[in-house]
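> call design_seq(struct)
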């Protein structure tokens, strides 16, 4: 049976192909085709019998179509978005190129700055991607930071504290498991261990929260001081969002990082824990920040969820690739890459 006979959607890949200067390739469909004369991101249909692993198959499609249909070599291919329209399932992928396309099926092509994309009439499936790229082109001016594991390398101390307190209460937990659970959330770690070991979850949480973290043992995550400085130099403002107490401010001050921050929320302010967006919304209002120009940076999915709920962009700092399928606007494997990832468009200081 064919794909249409089984009602299975046609699989199509579409490439968000960029120049080094950030311009994006768009192509205008030729006459006599569906959505004729509308603009789209170039791509192609999956060939029958290709590898069943959808991501790898679609990655291969973009490279193949780029080389054969557009005659445009691409590199650094990565899937970023999916959409469905008219029985076709689209997977959008980013890629880079230095070459000029040679068109065989389109009537026109252009490399455009993302902020100019919405001047063109796009095919229905491509329109939301064009909107997202245009919005992302808006300069980021406000950077909202998680504390544990993002700004400060606190996990070695916290996992030892967690496993030690659990041992005192009669539960055996190794540090690797503790880290995995805490990377989800402290609540997940407490509930998982309490349920498994028969501990009082409230007592375990109370003791962990009350644990006196030795300030002298805490250091910034590698690359954070430089990232804060470089983003500030381009007009960016920084905000701290943490459920730690004000010890976090003392640590940042001791490390010389507190002057980088324009505002903060700590446990004493009484906001619910992330992923609730209340603390972010408070800072947005108090400091008159446009959420379209703000990004929430964190190392856990709850940070991403809070940023999305607050209407801002999100950036996952995922050094160990714990969350490969996380949906976020930006992703880095180390803090040193944050200035380039988040500052890819010039800032304009107020």
């Amino acid at each position: 049976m064919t794909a249409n006979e089984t009602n299975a959607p046609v699989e199509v890949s579409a490439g968000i192909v960029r120049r080094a200067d950030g311009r994006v390739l768009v192509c205008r469909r030729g006459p006599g085709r569906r959505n004729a004369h509308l603009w789209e991101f170039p791509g192609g249909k999956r060939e029958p019998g290709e590898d069943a692993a959808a991501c790898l198959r679609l990655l291969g499609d973009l490279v193949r179509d780029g080389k054969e249909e557009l005659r445009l070599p691409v590199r650094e291919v990565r899937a970023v978005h999916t959409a469905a329209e008219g029985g076709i399932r689209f997977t959008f992928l980013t890629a880079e190129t230095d070459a000029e396309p040679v068109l065989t099926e389109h009537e026109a092509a252009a490399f455009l700055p993302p902020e100019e994309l919405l001047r063109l009439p796009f095919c229905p499936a491509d329109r939301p991607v064009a909107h997202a790229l245009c919005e992302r082109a808006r300069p980021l001016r406000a950077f909202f930071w998680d504390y544990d594991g993002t700004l400060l390398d606190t996990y070695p101390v916290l996992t030892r504290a967690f496993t030690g307190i659990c041992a005192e209460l009669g539960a055996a937990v190794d540090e690797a498991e503790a880290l995995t659970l805490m990377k989800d959330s402290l609540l997940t770690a407490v509930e998982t261990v309490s349920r498994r070991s028969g501990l009082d979850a409230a007592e375990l949480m109370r003791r962990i929260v009350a644990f006196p973290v030795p300030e002298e043992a805490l250091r910034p995550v590698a690359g954070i001081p430089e990232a804060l400085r470089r983003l500030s130099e381009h007009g960016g403002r920084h905000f701290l969002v943490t459920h730690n107490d004000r010890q976090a401010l003392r640590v940042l001050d001791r490390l010389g990082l507190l002057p980088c921050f324009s505002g903060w929320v700590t446990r004493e302010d009484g906001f619910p824990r992330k992923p609730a967006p209340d603390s972010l919304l408070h800072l947005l209002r108090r400091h008159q920040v446009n959420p379209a120009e703000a990004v929430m940076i964190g190392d856990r999915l709850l940070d991403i969820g809070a940023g999305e709920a607050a209407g801002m962009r999100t950036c996952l700092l995922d050094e160990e690739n714990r969350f490969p399928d996380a949906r976020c606007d930006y992703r880095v494997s180390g803090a040193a890459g944050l200035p380039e990832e988040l500052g890819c468009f010039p800032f304009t200081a107020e």
